[in-house]
Design goal:
This protein is an alpha+beta fold and about 220 residues long. Helix content is about 15%, strand content about 35%.
């Protein structure tokens, strides 16, 4: 079995159905970082020694790694590395007039399949000809998750802030998280608590039913 190279396929929109371009790296990354975050509000009231973390939301995942461009002929036939960089930039970085933004991307390598957009590109030129022409370059790249509309809909469980929702409380549920799941904004939790006549929204009793009103 031959060596599988990391590939990046470009698409014209977030459905990831219309492939428009692609590129394959010369040299696979030595490693990559796949980052996941959860945002909490941890503001400490004046005079308090601490504060309870309140869930705010889960931002998009990110993937980052280094790729290399080589024009010495050692990796494969001698190439102009600026041409290689331009191909990468055309696929991942360049503003596309047809869609009024850079391309949507899918990174594929082994078990990594990541729908995303390029958010950062930093080039470091490391080897040169006597006349100063670059022969090697290292690129640090970062990508941010860009899900398609169908996946977002599934993740939201077809919930809409324009509808009234009835929620059965389960163990571990909290009102800010429920508001974020339905409204996309956890800051509505005080309004929902008032709407349901809750005096202690921090300790929701499993089995209780609460109602989330329409935002209209």
């Amino acid at each position: 079995m031959g060596l599988e190279k990391l590939s990046i396929t470009a698409y014209s929109d977030s459905t990831y159905l219309s492939e428009v371009d692609f590129c394959i790296v010369q040299i696979n990354p030595a490693s990559y970082k796949h980052s996941h975050k959860v945002n909490y509000d941890s503001k400490v009231p004046i005079g308090a020694s601490g504060a309870e973390l309140e869930f705010q939301g889960i931002p998009p995942e990110t993937v980052s790694f280094k790729i290399y461009f080589d024009g010495t002929g050692i990796v494969d036939e001698q190439k102009n590395i600026q041409d290689l960089i331009d191909i990468f930039k055309e696929v991942c970085f360049k503003y596309q007039d047809e869609i009024h933004q850079p391309n949507y991307l899918i990174i594929s390598w082994g078990t990594l399949v990541f729908k995303c957009k390029l958010t950062s590109l930093e080039l470091n030129y490391t080897l040169f000809k006597p006349d100063g022409t670059p022969l090697r370059a290292e690129a640090e790249v970062s990508f941010e998750e860009a899900l398609d509309a169908l996946e977002i809909s599934k993740d939201a469980d077809n919930k809409s802030p324009d509808l009234t929702h009835e929620i059965l409380i389960k163990a571990g549920d909290n009102l800010p998280q429920i508001c974020f799941n339905v409204y996309g904004d956890s800051s509505y939790y005080l309004d929902v608590a008032k709407y349901n006549g809750l005096t202690n929204f921090r300790n929701l009793k499993p089995g209780t039913v609460i109602h989330l009103p329409s935002l209209k």
